[in-house]
């Protein structure tokens, strides 16, 4: 396994490890971005107005049980194409539930007295949302994004099943060729990438959360 | 629809395989996490490192773990034991936090009362601490069970995956029915398992209902 990873020949070129990592990160962030664009506003709306919470939470939990591999296959067969679109659909569907439920949970955890105080000071609904609720809910919102990223980055491996690139290539090709060192290298790289992204989110959490809210 | 009728035995076989691969690790995970969590509450310095380690292990991609484990364990890549161990690792790494939090949620005066009445450590753990910790532990149990049921199908990428095999089958044959059957059964399995855990929790904590009905009144 180390031989495969330390051979510089394997790192360069359009099918080299560097290119595969870039592809993998691209799939991950494209899906994460799209999932956030859908789930964040919905989560904020539900958390702010407290409308539709029951539905959102239960749908969110049920969606967690959706097997992403099956979703990918359905997306391939329904869109009738092999490539980026079905992968994106499957990964976005994977990312929405954690972002949605933790955004909602973050907002609904804000002390009602705090909101009343903000309203008493004359803040409008929009101001309360952006200046009070979102900052207080930020740790949970970030942990939702973090959970979504972890799931997407590990699942992006399955993109290789529908002939896309990314680090899953090594897993899928390695399995076909019975080239296990290649397979292990791919798996190891995905794991390292996941840990790296996780650390980045931990850092982002430290930087963006208001000082007054820090517990430690 | 005729495909379903013609392949009932295959579907049943993959369903039971799926159930086995998903549930066995949850049970094993609970059996490991409870003593581990108990030790961590007895020796408090252990708790935070254990929770942190759990966080790192849980962030490992399942497909990576399915493949790397055989190298570490010396098993065959296509052995089911890899899936079972990988999912057990996930279960322990997530449950350990809930077990520790749950055991910590036992009010000190309740524990002291038990000691005063003459309960030994083992009896206290089994009849006082664990029952009080049930709601917190079961919250983790629900997450792990649902996540495992959906993760098992990823194993189909390397050729062992219960219902996931229906996904690859449908994909190879360019045929939607087996994939939909697999997804629906996998969802149903997860929801059913979740429901069973909720019911089990109600049975195990009969006082919770009394307390909430008192509150309501």
Could you provide a short overview of the structure?
The complex is a heterodimer of chains A (216) and B (217). Chain A has 216 residues and is mostly helical. Chain A has helices at residues 2-6, 17-49, 53-64, 68-79, 84-108, 112-120, 125-155, 168-176, 180-208.
Overall body shape of chain B: globular
**Succession of helices and strands of chain A:** HHHHHHHHH
Helix proportion range of chain B: over 70%
- Count interface residues per chain for the largest interface: A-B, 39 and 43 residues
Mean pLDDT of chain A: 86
The count of helical stretches of chain A stands at: 9
Q: Uncertain runs of chain B with pLDDT below 50, 5 residues or more?
A: none
Largest sheet of chain B: none
Global outline of chain A: elongated
Order of helices and strands of chain B: HHHHHHHHHH
Straight-line N-to-C gap of chain A: 41 Å
User: How many whole angstroms does the radius of gyration of chain A measure?
Assistant: 20 Å
> Strand portion of chain B, in percent?
under 5%
Number of strands of chain A: 0
Briefly note the structural class of the backbone of chain B.
mainly alpha
Count all strands of chain B and give the number.
0
Helix/strand/pairing class of chain A, anyone? mainly alpha
Characterise the protein shown here.
The complex is a heterodimer of chains A (216) and B (217). Chain A is built from nine helices and no strands. Chain A has 216 residues and is mostly helical. The termini of chain A are far apart. Chain A is elongated, with a radius of gyration of 20 Å. The longest helix of chain A has 33 residues, at 17-49. Helices cover 83% and strands 0% of the residues of chain B. Chain B is globular. The chains are: A mainly alpha (216), B mainly alpha (217). Chain A binds chain B through residues 1, 61-62, 64-74, 76-78, 150, 153-155, 157-158, 161, 168, 171-172, 175, 180, 183-184, 186-188, 190-191, 194-195, 198, and chain B through 56, 59-68, 71, 77, 146-147, 149-150, 153-154, 156-159, 161, 163-164, 166-168, 170-171, 174-176, 179-180, 182-183, 186-187, 190-191, 194.
């Amino acid at each position: 396994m180390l031989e495969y990873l330390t051979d510089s020949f394997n790192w360069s070129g359009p099918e080299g490890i560097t290119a595969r990592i870039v592809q993998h990160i691209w799939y991950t962030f494209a899906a994460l971005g799209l999932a956030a664009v859908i789930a964040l506003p919905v989560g904020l709306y539900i958390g702010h107005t407290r409308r539709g919470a029951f539905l959102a939470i239960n749908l969110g939990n049920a969606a967690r049980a959706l097997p992403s591999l099956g979703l990918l296959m359905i997306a391939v067969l329904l869109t009738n194409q092999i490539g980026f679109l079905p992968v994106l659909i499957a990964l976005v569907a994977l990312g929405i539930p954690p972002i949605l439920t933790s955004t909602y949970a973050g907002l609904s955890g804000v002390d009602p007295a705090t909101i009343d105080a903000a309203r008493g000071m004359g803040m409008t609904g929009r101001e309360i949302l952006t200046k009070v609720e979102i900052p207080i809910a930020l740790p949970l919102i970030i942990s939702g994004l973090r959970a979504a990223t972890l799931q997407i980055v590990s699942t992006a491996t399955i993109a290789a099943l529908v002939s896309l690139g990314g680090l899953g290539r090594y897993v899928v090709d390695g399995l076909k060729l019975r080239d296990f060192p290649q397979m292990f290298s791919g798996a190891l790289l995905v794991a390292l990438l996941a840990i790296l992204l996780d650390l980045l989110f931990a850092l982002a959490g430290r930087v963006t959360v208001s000082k007054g809210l820090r517990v430690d | 629809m005729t495909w379903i009728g013609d392949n009932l035995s295959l579907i049943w076989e993959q369903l039971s395989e799926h159930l086995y691969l998903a549930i066995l690790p949850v049970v094993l995970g609970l059996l490991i996490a409870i003593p581990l969590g108990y030790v961590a509450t007895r020796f408090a310095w252990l708790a935070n490192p254990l929770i942190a380690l759990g966080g790192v292990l849980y962030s490992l991609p399942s497909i990576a773990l399915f493949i790397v484990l055989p190298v570490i364990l010396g098993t065959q890549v296509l052995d089911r034991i890899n899936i079972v161990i990988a999912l057990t690792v996930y279960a322990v790494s997530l449950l350990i936090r809930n077990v520790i939090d749950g055991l910590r949620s036992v009010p000190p005066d309740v524990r002291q009362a038990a000691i005063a009445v003459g309960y030994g450590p083992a009896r206290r753990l089994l009849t006082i601490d664990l029952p009080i910790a049930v709601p917190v532990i079961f919250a983790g149990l629900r997450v792990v069970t649902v996540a495992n049921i959906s993760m098992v199908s990823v194993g189909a990428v390397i050729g062992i995956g219960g219902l996931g095999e229906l996904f690859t089958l449908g994909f190879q044959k360019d045929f939607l029915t087996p994939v939909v059957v697999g997804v629906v059964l996998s969802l149903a399995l997860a929801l059913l398992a979740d429901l069973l855990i909720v019911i089990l929790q109600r049975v195990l904590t009969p006082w919770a209902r009394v307390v909430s009905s008192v509150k309501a009144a």
